Structures are given as structure tokens and as C-alpha cells.
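Researcher: We're teaching a course module on how sequence relates to structure. For the next exercise, students receive a sequence and then see the predicted structure as C-alpha cells, so they can try to spot secondary structure elements on their own. Here is the exercise chain.
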Amino acid sequence: MKTITSNSVNEIVIKNSRFITLLIEINDTTNINEIFEKVKIEYPKATHYCYAYITKTFKKSSDDGEPGGTAGMPMLNVLEKEEMINTLAITIRYFGGIKLGAGGLVRAYSKSVREAIINSDTIEIEEGYLIKVDVSYEEQKNLDYILKDYSIINKEYMENVTYDVLIPKNKLNILNNYSCQIIKEEYIKKFSN
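Model: And here is the predicted structure for the students to work with:
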């Protein structure tokens, strides 16, 4: 799976119609309507604001007035084919006066999203956990060695040393000898080890 590292904008012109695709990083669907409202203010008087998005638990698309199945679903198909997650694609179309037909629209919206992904910085991610690990000061050196290739988010020094660390799901067993608590599931940068 992949996600974008920062929001991006890409524009293509097909038969005088402008297709502006925004790729926006999202973690859930709570701010989607707010994002759409900002886009409509930033790109006023567009003919269509079509979209597709995928999160861990949800995916959705909209043709926003284009003929059914010619915009949102092709955009969603590109996101799925490219294995994108936590990504919202909004394609703003300014009609150029030449009708593209159903097949032309499918190709145009697909191409617009595909090029936006190609021109964006993406990162490989995998499913993992944010884990809290509690160890004695004597065990700290061993745990530091075990976690050397992973993202330690925070360390607190109190009675014991408490780590907040991101661990891929398939590496959770490296902490079997320690007192751990799973804080939440997360998508994390893919580790090479």
C-alpha cells in the first residue's frame, strides 16, 4: 500500500476541458465536507467536482453530475490499482465546449488521477500498531537495540522507561518478552527489515 506524503495538484487539458486533480491525505472521513467546501471556493464556477477516496475502513466516489460511472468510479479504480490508502482525489472539471462521450470521460478522469499520483511524492506503508512498552532502566539498552530500526515516537523516564513506538503488525512478536500495550492501529512507513 501507498499514500501521499503531502497534498498535491496536477492539471491536464483534454479537448479544451481542464481537469485539475487534487490529492489530499486523509485518515478518516470526518473532514471531507469541509475539504469540498474549501475546494469549491478555491476553484469557483467549475462544471464538476468529482471525487474518490479510500481509507482503512471506507471508500466512496461521486460523478457530481457527469454521466453515471464516468468519473468517480474510474477515479476510485485508479486509487485501488495504485494501492493508495488514506487518499482523497478530487478532480475539478472546467468544461471546454467539446463533449468527450462516456468513454472519453472515463479515460480523462482516470488519466487525471493517474498522472496526479505519478507526479506526487508517495511512500510505501503497511499496517502496524502504536505500542506502549514499559521497561526497567536495566532493560533499556536491550530494548533500544531491538527497536533500532523502528520509529520511537516518545520516551518517558519515570519509575521505569516508557516507550511509544510504531511497529509493523508482522513484527509485533519482537516485543514478546516485554510488557506492552497496543494504543491503536496505524498505517506506518514500511520498514525494510
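Model: If you want an answer key for the exercise: The mean pLDDT is 94. The CA atoms of residues 72 and 117 lie 16 Å apart.
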